[in-house]
Amino acid sequence: MALSLRNVQGKIVYWDSAPSPVCPDSRGDPVLEISVVYGQTQVGVKVVGPLDLETTASFLSVMGDLLLEGFRDYSLDVREAQIDAAGAAALTLCKRRAGSVGATLLCVDA
To answer: What is the pLDDT, as a whole number, of residue 109?
Structure first.
C-alpha cells in the first residue's frame, strides 16, 4: 500500500493513496498519525494508528528528520499505536539512531 502525506491541523497524517480490494482500510482513511510538539528543550511525538510493515518507513523518515533538527531530548508516546514486530524493530532502530547523535528517546507506552 502506498501512503500519501498530508498535514492536518498541525499533525503529520499518512493516508492511503488508492483503494485496494485486498486491504479494507484503503478507502482514503487515515492510516498513521504523528503529532509533533516542540518544547523549549524536548520534542514530544505522539503516534496513533498501526506501526507496522506498511508504516514503519514513514515513521522512521519523520523521526530521522526530527533528529536532524538537533534537539537532544525526545518523548515518544505510542500508547495509541498498534505495534507489530516490524513496528517494534522500528522503535528499536529509532532509539539507536537517537543515541548515535547524542540524543535521548523516552518511549511512553503505558
So the answer is: 84
